[in-house]
Amino acid sequence: MFANIFTILADDKPLWVEMIGMLIPIGLAAWGFVRAFRAWERQKKREIDLNLEQQRYESKLAACRGIWPLLAYLSMWENDKTVFVKRKNSWYFRKAQARDFLIKFPDAYFQQGHGIFIPAESRDGLYHFRNIVYSILLKSSDESVSEVLLTDQGIADVRVPELREKVTTSLKNMLIDSRIDFKE
User: Fold this and answer.
1) Domain definitions of the chain by residue range
2) What is the DSSP track for 68-132?
3) Chain segment 99-141, per-residue pLDDT in tens
4) Torsion sign across C-alpha atoms 125, 128, 130, 133
5) Helix, strand or coil for residue 11?
6) Exposed (0-12), middle (13-18) or buried (19+): which is 101, by Cβ within 10 Å?
7) How many CB atoms lie within 10 A of CB 106?
8) Which of 2, 13, 20, 168 is the most exposed place for a label (fewest CB within 10 A)?
9) How many CB atoms lie within 10 A of CB 89?
10) Which residues cross the membrane (predicted)?
């Protein structure tokens, strides 16, 4: 009697052979579904990662754009914002521009939030420049004079150009290093 149970559905094949014949396509379909689902999961994770990477890059770009105008204060070429100007082979310190920098730097760095994303080298360079400007402002007591002759000419000849180069290089490198790689 038990021998006939396995041969009820098919006359010439046992039941277990037919069961395996039905389970193989079902198993392959399940395996294909699992593979497709995992591929979809990987794709969605990659899309989320790219989206976050893009937002991070845009924030860094906005930070660079917010900090970049401050570099006009460090310029060695005279403009409306330059703190140090050269007159007849001597460097002069301009108080109004220095005060303007001391107002705009914390605004860009803290209030606009650009300080979060700028690299440490840029931050250190800008703070070093701020300290130089602040110390010279404290030393110059005569308020009637708008430009003060620098006693240490090396500040404007060497240190400020080095700081400017340090800040610009680190900002550019940050943008180059954090570019988005869409491949993979």
Assistant:
1) 59-177
2) GGGGGGG-SS--SS-SEEEETTEEEEEHHHHHHHHHHHHIIIIIS-GGGTS-HHHHHHHHHHHHH
3) 999 999 999 999 988 899 999 999 999 999 999 999 999 988 7
4) negative
5) coil
6) buried
7) 12
8) 2
9) 6
10) 15-37
